[in-house]
Amino acid sequence: MAKKTRKTGARATSRPARPAPRSTATKRPAKPALPAMNERIARALEAIAARLPPADAGVDSAKLLASAEAFVWHPDGRLSPVPKVSRVDLDLLQGIDRVRDTLIENTARFATGLPANNALLWGARGMGKSSLVKAAHASVNARPDIAGRLKLIEIHREDIESLPALMDILRGSDFRFIVFCDDLSFDGNDASYKSLKAVLEGGIEGRPDNVILYATSNRRHLLARDMIENERSTAINPGEAVEEKVSLSDRFGLWLGFHRCSQDEYLAMVRGYCDHYGIALDDAELQREALEWSTTRGSRSGRVAWQFTQELAGRLGVRIKA
What we know:
Layout: H1 34-50, H2 57-65, E1 70-74, E2 78-81, H3 97-111, E3 119-123, H4 129-141, E4 150-154, H5 163-170, E5 176-181, H6 193-200, E6 211-217, H7 225-234, H8 238-250, E7 254-258, H9 263-277, H10 283-297, H11 302-316
Parallel strand pairs: 1-4, 3-6, 3-7, 4-5, 5-6
Antiparallel strand pairs: 1-2
Helix pairs in contact: 3-4, 7-8, 9-10, 9-11
């Protein structure tokens, strides 16, 4: 009798489902937004580019420098020619005879290739510091032996950090240059004075032989007195903290002081302007009005004398031609 075969079907075993594998990836810090990163890179590149002279500086600088007697320096590497310099005739600068003669002599020595000093003109407001620099340049540059080879370049106080880039452009030129900074002073944590110190003395390259620096300031040491006192009171070594910043003025070999003028000097300035521009007025009346004008202004200076002259000329219908 045949045996019945036992059907041995595979047992259906229900196995539990495997849990989904856990993610083992560690969290990465979020990347900065791409636009913000690009903006930071662009700012950095602009800062670097501002310190570099233009690519064609070597080709065009000689032609540019020959095109004018004065220029304004821009921190992006440009020299802008000044078609007509705003200046006062040297003969009209009254009451500053000694400093006038000293600066002209120093400028003439430099223009002829002889040793000369960087100059700091400091002192009372409105006494003709910047006017003397521009007048001295014009006087020396007009000499036949100079024949216009002395150039005046103005650099603004806030652009002092770009001074090394300017030196690179001027270093190889056949002209001679007065680099002029008006109203130079430093406040707070301003560190741009270090660029000026390196150019004046102390840097590896130093000042080019064909460049001299003239600066004007109301402060003898280029720092406010309260700033010097603050350095003394807060620094670990007060002497060193003050010495670092005050030493900047020591690097100007020529110090020329301008002080408040007397009443007679002030009246001499007024008379000089009136004679030069053809303003006719009785001397007693001129003196009375000039003194009254200075009293209302609270000071006597060359600037006040010039402002009174403009007022008087306008009232009398006299045109002043520069």
